Amino acid sequence: KQEVTQIPAALSVPEGENLVLNCSFTDSAIYNLQWFRQDPGKGLTSLLLIQSSQREQTSGRLNASLDKSSGRSTLYIAASQPGDSATYLCAVEGGSEKLVFGKGTKLTVNP
Amino acid sequence: GAVVSQHPSRVICKSGTSVKIECRSLDFQATTMFWYRQFPKQSLMLMATSNEGSKATYEQGVEKDKFLINHASLTLSTLTVTSAHPEDSSFYICSGQGDGGKLFFGSGTQLSVL
Predict the structure, then answer these.
(1) Helix (H) or strand (E) holding B34
(2) What is the pLDDT of residue A45?
(3) DSSP state of A82
(4) With an 8 Å Cβ cutoff, is B4 touching chain A?
(5) Which of A41, A46, A101 lies nearest to residue B44, judging by beta carbons?
(6) What 3-state DSSP class applies to B86?
């Protein structure tokens, strides 16, 4: 059974700092890995999707890496802003086509 | 752009009553709708998968008679929590998948059963 773990559970940083969120998964047989952002009352927003054959994806200040063999992914946020404050979820899609989510990392960026 | 509209955003009900949650796909046709729930400090967990016009497929441990899912059209799916109990209090969120495979999530429904 696939399990997804996200560390840390919560993170508080000053504005402008670069930061890394970690995600690990137990079964490396995945189709893809996604990073989502969860804002209260606004649902989930897909940030980056990395196919199993890819090693990283970039979108603006966000960069996500994938090391499938070791079961790890990182989300790098450059020059963090208060608007980045949210819960970030990692999810993997495997052979059953189900998304398995981690518990999330709650990020607070202080002005 | 493609959006999934989910209502209500928050509902409080008495134990034993039924609650219906609606998800509508706007600007796209959701051939598949996924329903998740999230207990505090826990992961989003898939409850069921529904394809338009057919019966939903429920995950292990999810009672199909308690959580009724209707996906009668390509733009509307509903989840009805029947005879709700306090242990059903949770955050419920839907996700619509279009032809391209991309997922679009609703804004979620916080259910509190007294």
Answers:
(1) strand B32-38
(2) 86
(3) G
(4) yes
(5) A101
(6) helix
